[in-house]
């Protein structure tokens, strides 16, 4: 069983890692990426803030807990309210690819949340939904 010590802020990641069939080396690299922003088995191409890649990692682990993931490749670009691109997952026997769009503005609009100025409350959506703001998650394989 895979045990990790994470801050309260990332307790959901600890649970996702524990429940995942991903390899221990990949799980270790997920933690390493969270701590340092780089890891051998988490390959990020394009501009991607660590927090947005972490949200993607959480979504991958939650959506595909049965996969024995060894490595991921993220090709994405980050905007103010969004993070969009593709992610490729490698297991010992197969590859899976997904198109994704994480968008806190979309989530705020879905929830009907507005800020003081009447705009979609993106910060609240990002804070409260974290990795659960995926507008698009589409298999490409």
Could you outline the blueprint of secondary structure elements for this entry?
Blueprint: H1 11-19, H2 24-36, E1 42-45, H3 50-63, E2 71-78, E3 82-90, E4 95-103, H4 104-111, H5 122-129, E5 134-139
Parallel strand pairs: 1-2
Antiparallel strand pairs: 2-3, 3-4, 4-5
Descriptive account of the structure:
This protein has helices spanning 11-19, 24-36, 50-63, 104-111, 122-129, and strands at 42-45, 71-78, 82-90, 95-103, 134-139. By secondary structure, the chain is α+β, with helices and mostly antiparallel strands. The chain has one domain (8-139). A 5-stranded mixed beta sheet has the order 1-2-3-4-5. The two termini are 30 Å apart. The mean pLDDT is 92.
Sheet with most strands: strand arrangement: 1-2-3-4-5
Unreliable runs: none
Report strand %: 25-35%
Q: Could you give the distance between the termini?
A: 30 Å
Structural class based on helices, strands and sheet pairing = alpha+beta
Helical proportion, percent range: 25-40%
| Total individual domains | 1
Got a strand count? 5
Short characterization:
It contains five helices and five strands. With 141 residues, the chain is of the alpha+beta class.
Q: What are the defining features of this structure?
A:
single chain; alpha+beta; 26% strand; 141 residues
């Amino acid at each position: 069983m895979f045990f990790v010590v994470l801050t309260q802020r990332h307790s959901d990641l600890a649970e996702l890692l524990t429940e995942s069939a991903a390899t221990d080396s990949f799980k270790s690299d997920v933690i390493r990426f969270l701590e340092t922003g780089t890891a051998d088995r988490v390959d990020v191409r394009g501009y991607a803030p660590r927090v947005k890649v972490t949200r993607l990692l959480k979504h991958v682990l939650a959506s595909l807990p049965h996969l024995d993931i060894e490595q991921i490749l993220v090709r994405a670009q980050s905007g103010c309210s969004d993070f969009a691109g593709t992610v490729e997952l490698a297991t010992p026997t197969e590859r899976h690819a997904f198109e994704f769009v994480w968008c806190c503005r979309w989530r705020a609009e879905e929830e009907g949340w507005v800020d003081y100025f009447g705009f979609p409350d993106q910060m609240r959506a990002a804070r409260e939904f974290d990795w659960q703001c995926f507008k698009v998650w589409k298999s490409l394989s």
